[in-house]
Design brief:
single chain, 368 residues, Rossmann fold, 5-stranded parallel beta sheet, 13 helices
């Protein structure tokens, strides 16, 4: 009887010590890149279904805020989460411009911010409380340039990018530098502003320069329109994009056969070698959503996993410890693959995917 009472007392003690763990998530659930947000939320939802309590029995509470694809809304969301909601860590947002609006708030409030897919180098540069589990644009742009020069044999390249997007600017800069380093020539650079629908003037100028390859660090909606209009103009040139180009089904629905052969640098492919967690996630995702796993879903799920692991090691209230564990995680066996972080910067492989028969197909893996 005494043993039973003691056991009950221990259980009650554990329950009394259990507390809610608050994790903030900032995603574009509406606005220009709302499609990214929906895919990201899928990853968070599946990760939460798999693990909604810590190993200590603490209940995890997700506080999702829609940043409406806007940088001011992103800053407001971050401020709300750290000031009012008192979260232990924040995950998000999806794009670099919005992430850059949140980083100072993270540092000022000493609250860890995990960027799953914001790739601009400035997102983490000089920041003490901002980490990234994707690779940076400086790495991604180099891979794309190497693909153009070394694999495709291009000598002259064109760049069509969005000069209002930190993501697009960062990729174009890294690509341009590496092309010149490898002895190639950028024969034309022109702008594809987000929200624009007619790119025929830019594409005609590119066609006139007769490049061997086109670099397109553009998001999916404008990218699909560019693919369709390039086909209409008879511009047939090997095209390489970044991780945002084919990241939503909208690209395939709009571009259709015009997108065939497009290649993109990415973090992940369901056709590459999978971790044990990756295999389980693919099955759960396909069972629930009846479609192929999105890279963004996998990356958001991994950000959640890294956050929970750090909280379990430190407790929900010790944000200094949580931040340190996140920034220096070693050999994390994630859904998107195995990776480590060095002072908040990811060390991970990249993949090249290619559009074939209206689907994104794995081409090769590039080690860091």
């Amino acid at each position: 009887m005494k043993k039973m009472l003691l056991s009950l007392a221990l259980v009650c003690g554990v329950m009394a010590n259990a507390e809610d763990v608050k994790i903030g998530v900032v995603l574009p659930m509406s606005g220009a890149v709302g499609g990214f947000g929906e895919l990201g939320k899928r990853g968070i939802d599946l990760a939460y279904e798999a693990k909604s309590t810590t190993k200590n029995g603490d209940k995890i509470q997700i506080i999702l805020v829609d940043n409406k694809s806007d940088k001011i809304e992103s800053a407001n969301a971050m401020q709300k989460l750290v000031s009012s909601d008192k979260v232990s860590v924040v995950i998000g947002p999806m794009i670099s411009t919005n992430a850059l609006a949140m980083t100072k708030i993270a540092d000022d409030n000493k609250t860890p911010l995990i960027s799953p897919v914001a790739t601009n180098d400035r997102v983490t540069k000089g920041k003490k409380y901002v980490s990234r589990i994707s690779f940076a644009d400086s790495f991604q742009g180099i891979i794309a340039a190497n693909l153009a020069i070394k694999d495709l044999g291009a000598k002259k390249v064109a760049i069509l990018f969005d000069n209002s997007s930190d993501y697009s600017i960062g990729l174009a800069k890294a690509f341009r530098r590496q092309i010149k380093k490898l002895g190639g020539e950028v024969v034309i650079e022109t702008n594809a502003q987000a929200g624009t629908h007619d790119f025929k003037a830019q594409l005609s100028s590119i066609k006139a320069k007769n490049p061997d390859a086109l670099y397109l660090p553009i998001y999916y909606t404008e990218g699909a329109l560019i693919a369709s209009q390039a086909q209409q103009l008879g511009l047939k040139v090997p095209t390489i994009g970044g991780d945002g180009l084919t990241s939503n089904k909208i690209f395939f629905e709009i571009a259709k056969e015009a997108g065939e052969g497009y290649m993109v640098t990415d973090y992940y492919s369901t056709s590459s070698k999978q971790t044990a967690e990756g295999e389980k996630f693919i099955k759960a995702y396909q069972d629930k959503y009846k479609e192929e796993v999105s890279t963004f879903s996998a990356m958001l799920a991994d950000a959640y996993g890294v956050a929970v692991q750090a909280i379990e090691q430190c407790g929900a209230k010790d944000k200094e410890c949580i931040n340190d564990k996140i920034r220096n995680v070693k050999d994390y066996e994630g859904i998107s693959g195995k990776f480590s972080l060095n002072n908040g910067e990811a060390i991970r492989s990249a993949v090249i995917n290619e559009v074939k028969n209206g689907k994104l197909v794995y081409k090769t893996t590039i080690e860091p």
